[in-house]
């Protein structure tokens, strides 16, 4: 062992001794915690953790570390899209995210919508979804204007998206893959450099998947598409040149940095395994901030969430970034939300200087260790999936869904028991927040009128129709007899069940219903204050009003259905039993609780309904209290 290694070891041992002395006899292992990925996080990392780590240098090869500012264009009609693009360009946006084309059906509308785009400088990110007829319409128009060679960015779709999100296809998977193969061939023949294969890995993170699961299922998903296209005689190089990976961004800051960096390692391993490692392009990553962890209450906290998510994605090396507005989960989104989301890019570029540094996380003992572990775990799991039949077979069997649901349920469990805190929702709820059920954003689903659209069955038929009629046809399958069905990967938001409780309580209050819970304080302020803050915070997170009185003022509460006794363990010894008896005598429907662990004896003696403890299921408690108060909807 060299002198440097000896010094490092001695330094680590010294730190360990000091840490355990501060822990008063506990071992250092008590500070370890396990992530949702099953990775054990240590309290300190040093050079020893990099001894067997293969540090990824692929991000260092990029001379330009800026990323495409790919903000969403949330409009439907051509005139509105035109105006939004014009205003966004003036404010510095250089890529334009659009995923709804239902109100753009012909060349004139396309020309109007994208009038202000400079096809040589601006980039696009168009997810056409099941509106496959838009692809040949758009490409044919660019060809007519001799602009197909200038096209930059992504215009395409994920052939597996319908099966993932709906459990079945409205257009058969084989038709989609045939259509995608023909699109790639057309692009190659016409020297169009845009990408058209979209792998939407963010579907998994929006369902509650952990970072490892998102990596594994995204690349397994991509490998399935690659193999299908190879079977359709699409050359390998043309396939990988057309791939865009879209990942979600979770709230675990360092894990997300490691995830995006690990994605490069897994991609490299996959290319080498397929014998194409030396000629394949680097992974192209698009990232979008998550809606899974966003809240409708205390909605401005979402600003902090989107900012840290964006920071982690950029530090992880993404090529293109979409930051959703802080109010994107609300029905009525504002220009302020869009402006702040767009300006967040510039703050991170110009003030945080993230566009000036190649791989800012490189060399961090902690992040390099996480990156390495995610890479190795992800690669091994990916190989297991292939050995077990591949992505589609695992999806049909329900194994993918079960694996993600297990983590999603654990996240909900930790939220319900307050092991994890969501500011403004299950902790530090602001009782002044007033929202209604209509506040929650429900995406509008537009449907084509079947009798107004011409049906085609392939890319070439669609292209012929477009060149003749100048409008987008509807792509259909000859038959859906061989289509696949599976349980959908259910996307949701983590806090929706808490928000429902609060909305129901607020609605009851607006209708004049009494939703007040009484809290009787016992002893001096210093005795009951910590528990009073705890129980008040819980009740506020359920949208309930709190009335606080001392023991001497309990007569004010005789009309309440629910009362909570609040003090410390010593003060409970002085409870006047006659007061409790009198309260129950005055109100036969009264429900009473006591705060604090270990109060079983008092609960039994006073015939109380239960204890409010630090390790209880807060959600179920609130749901029960609302039932007692007669709040409808539970």
Automatic annotation (TrEMBL):
Q: What is its EC number?
A: 5.4.99.2
User: Which Gene3D superfamilies does the UniProt entry name for this protein?
Assistant: Cobalamin-binding domain (3.40.50.280), Methylmalonyl-CoA mutase (3.20.20.240)
**Alphabetical UniProt keywords:** Cobalamin, Cobalt, Isomerase
Start and end residues of each Methylmalonyl-CoA mutase alpha/beta chain catalytic domain = 104-455
Q: Does the keyword Isomerase apply?
A: yes
The record's top EC class is isomerase
What are the names of the required cofactors?
adenosylcob(III)alamin
According to its UniProt record, which protein family does this protein belong to?
Belongs to the methylmalonyl-CoA mutase family.
Please state what the protein is called.
methylmalonyl-CoA mutase
- Tell me which species this is from: Metabacillus endolithicus
């Amino acid at each position: 062992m060299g002198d440097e290694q000896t010094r490092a070891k001695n330094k680590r041992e010294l730190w360990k001794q000091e840490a355990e002395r501060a822990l008063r006899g506990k071992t250092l292992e008590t500070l370890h915690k396990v992530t949702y990925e099953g990775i054990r996080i240590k309290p300190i990392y040093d050079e020893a953790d990099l001894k067997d780590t293969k540090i990824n240098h692929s991000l260092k090869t990029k001379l330009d570390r800026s990323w495409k500012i790919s903000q969403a264009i949330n409009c439907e009609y051509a005139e509105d899209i035109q105006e939004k693009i014009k205003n966004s360009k003036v404010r510095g946006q250089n890529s334009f995210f659009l995923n709804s084309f239902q109100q753009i059906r012909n060349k004139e509308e396309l020309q109007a919508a994208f009038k202000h785009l400079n096809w040589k400088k601006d980039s696009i990110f168009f997810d056409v979804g099941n509106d496959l007829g838009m692809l040949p319409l758009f490409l044919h128009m660019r060809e007519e204007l001799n602009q197909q060679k200038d096209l930059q960015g992504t215009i395409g779709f994920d052939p597996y998206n319908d099966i993932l999100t709906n459990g079945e296809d409205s257009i058969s998977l084989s038709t989609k893959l045939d259509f995608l193969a023909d699109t790639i061939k057309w692009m190659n023949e016409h020297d169009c450099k845009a990408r058209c294969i979209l792998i939407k890995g963010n579907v998994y993170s929006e369902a509650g998947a952990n970072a490892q699961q998102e990596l594994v299922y995204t690349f397994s998903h991509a490998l399935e598409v690659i193999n299908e296209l190879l079977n359709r005689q699409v050359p390998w190089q043309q396939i990988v040149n057309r791939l865009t990976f879209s990942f979600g961004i979770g709230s675990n800051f360092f894990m997300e940095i490691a995830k995006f960096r690990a994605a490069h390692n897994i991609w490299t391993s996959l290319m080498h395994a397929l014998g194409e490692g030396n000629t394949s392009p680097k992974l192209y990553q698009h990232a979008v901030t998550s809606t899974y962890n966003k809240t409708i209450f205390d909605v401005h906290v979402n600003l902090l969430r989107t900012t840290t998510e964006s920071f982690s994605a950029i530090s992880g090396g993404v090529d293109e970034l979409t930051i959703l507005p802080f109010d994107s989960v609300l029905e009525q989104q504002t220009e302020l939300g869009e402006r702040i989301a767009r300006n967040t890019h510039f703050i991170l570029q110009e003030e945080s200087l993230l566009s000036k540094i190649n791989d800012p996380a490189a060399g961090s003992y902690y992040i390099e260790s996480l990156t390495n572990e995610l890479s190795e775990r992800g690669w091994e799991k990916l190989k297991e999936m292939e050995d077990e039949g591949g992505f589609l077979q695992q999806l049909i069997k329900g194994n993918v869904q079960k694996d993600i649901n297990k983590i999603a349920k654990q996240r909900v469990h930790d939220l319900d028991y307050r092991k994890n805190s969501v500011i403004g929702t299950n902790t530090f709820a602001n009782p002044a927040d007033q929202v209604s059920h209509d506040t929650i954003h429900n995406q509008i689903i537009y449907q084509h009128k079947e009798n107004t659209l011409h049906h085609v069955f392939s890319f070439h038929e669609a292209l012929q129709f477009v060149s003749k009629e100048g409008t987008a046809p509807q792509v259909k399958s000859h038959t859906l007899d061989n289509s696949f069905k599976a349980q959908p990967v259910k996307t949701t938001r983590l806090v929706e069940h808490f928000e429902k409780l609060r909305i129901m309580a607020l609605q009851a209050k607006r209708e004049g219903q009494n939703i007040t819970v009484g809290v009787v304080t016992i002893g001096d302020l210093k005795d009951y204050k910590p528990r009073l803050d705890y129980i008040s915070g819980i009740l506020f997170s359920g949208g309930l009003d709190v009335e606080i009185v001392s023991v001497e003022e309990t007569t004010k509460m005789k009309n309440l259905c629910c009362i909570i006794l609040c003090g410390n363990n010593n003060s409970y010894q002085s409870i006047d039993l006659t007061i409790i008896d009198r309260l129950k005598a005055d109100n036969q429907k009264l429900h009473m609780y006591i705060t604090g662990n270990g109060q079983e004896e008092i609960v039994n003696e006073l015939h109380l309904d239960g204890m409010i403890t630090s390790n209880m299921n807060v959600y179920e408690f609130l749901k029960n209290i609302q039932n007692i108060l007669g709040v409808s909807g539970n």
